[in-house]
Amino acid sequence: MHASKRHRHGLLATGLASLLLAAASAGPAAATGPQGTGTLQQQVDAVHDTGAVGVFAEVTSPGSRDSARAGTARAGTGRPMPWNGRFRIGSATKPFTATVVLQLVGEGRLSLEDTVEEWLPGVVRGNGNDGRLITVRQLLQHTSHIPEVLPEVPALNGADGYRAERFRAYTPEELVATAMRTPRVPGAGWSYSNTNYMLAAMIVQTVTHRSWAHEVRSRIIRPLGLGGTVVPGTFPLVPGPHAQAYTAFGTGAGTGTDVTVLDPSMAVGSGSLISTAHDLNRFYAALLGGRLLRPAQLDEMRTTVPTPDADVRYGLGLGEIASTCGGSYFGHPGNLLGYRTWGGATQDGSRTAVVYVNSDGGRETQGAMTALMDQELCRFRP
Predict the structure, then answer these.
(1) What pLDDT does 315 receive?
(2) For 154-186, how does the pLDDT look when each residue is reduced to its tens digit (9 = 90+)?
(3) What stretches in the chain show pLDDT beneath 70?
(4) Residue 231 near residue 178, CB atoms below 8 Å
(5) In the prediction, which pLDDT does 19 show?
(6) Rounded distance, CA 68 to CA 43, Å?
(7) 339: which residues sit within 8 A by CB, 6+ positions away?
(8) Which CA distances in Å does 130 have to 123, 178, 194, 232?
(9) pLDDT given at position 20
């Protein structure tokens, strides 16, 4: 892959380890929050001060819910961030997909040790890619080394491509076929790829004979009453109250392009969901609290492998992130064209936190978001 394309891909649907590596190198902002005693509003202000157009965060615990916002929902205006606005959650979609797959495992309808070939014959073949040698577990864990396909989507890789192809619809089958034209990523261990979760969505449809979207709605969204969460399919708008999203596509050119309108079908299973901070908090509380998965499957989800960042391990659709105050929390970042989010929960789901911004922000933005998560989810509160 061309070097500039790799750089731009870091702004699209970035993996957990690379976000944490960015946070670790983000400088002073990453160090101000975790050990501080600031309120949630002060933490949100700190994120805004790094260059984000707008910021919103919500933290919940039993009997308590705290929200804060800063900046604006539309650049160049005084319109504040909506209190419970919707936004594209990007890779924070992956815990939803992993939950559906693990529910099917708990029902005995498939196994984590099943190969991709068993459910999708002939789909993963060519250039060293072989579905006969890749398991469902490896898809969810990002240890399959299947190539990443999103750098091949023009709408995600530059302002001209975005304007030309923001309404283009994709199918998972089309995207996976494109990925198969790229040689398998060499090596062993952990290697993040959105293609893994496109394949997981395809397997869900094969097992259930219903779409991934149907299963996410019927198994997670409706039972939890997530009224702000949408599976958009090919619909390009963010419905209801929302902030505009902006990206400079890695050029560093100010606020950049308004990229709110986008057909997100290039990210089915991996990054297409729209949600709210409140809904994501409810989801993480239910997931880590044991209300969505049986104990055996929740244990599988929380069984982790190392990533390139020593402070981050990855399970099945969930990252385990070391806290500065000892212990760790579970969660997942998300990033899809301007909307960037961090969400997660304590080990038992009793305390949750979600923060999102509606622009690329500056060099220290991701570090400040990580600092907020660390402070709010530390085992020992300051």
Answers:
(1) 98
(2) 999 999 999 999 999 999 999 999 999 999 988
(3) 1-37, 379-382
(4) no
(5) 54
(6) 9
(7) 87, 88, 89, 90, 245, 356, 357, 358
(8) 9, 15, 17, 31
(9) 46
3-state secondary structure the chain: CCHHHHHHHCCCCCCHHHHHHHHHCCCHHHHHCCCCCCCHHHHHHHHHCCCCCEEEEEEEECCEEEEEEEEECCCCCCCECCCCCEEECHHHHHHHHHHHHHHHHHCCCCCCCCEHHHHCCCCCEECCEEHHHCEHHHHHHCCCCCCCCHHHCHHHCCHHHHHHHCCCCCCHHHHHHHHCCCCCCCCCCCCCCCHHHHHHHHHHHHHHCCCHHHHHHHHHHHHHCCCCCECCCCCCCCCCCECCCEECCCCCCCCCEECCCCCHHHHCCCCCCEECHHHHHHHHHHHHCCCCCCHHHHHHHCCCEECCCCCEEECCCCEEEECCCCCEEEEEEEEECCEEEEEEECCCCCCEEEEEECCCCCCCHHHHHHHHHHHHHCCCCC
pLDDT on residue 16? 54
Q: Which of 140, 141, 143, 151 is nearest to 12 (CA)?
A: 151
Scored b (16 or more CB within 10 A) or e, 32-67 reads bbbeeebebebbbbbbbbbbbbbbbbbbbbeeeeeb
How many CA atoms, within 13 angstroms, populate the side-chain half-sphere of residue 310? 0
Which domains, from first to last, does the chain contain?
Answer: 6-377 (3.40.710.10)
174 burial (CB, 10 Å; 0-12 / 13-18 / 19+) is middle
The neighbouring-strand residues paired with 125 are 130
Quickly tell me which residue has 């969204």 as its tokens: 221
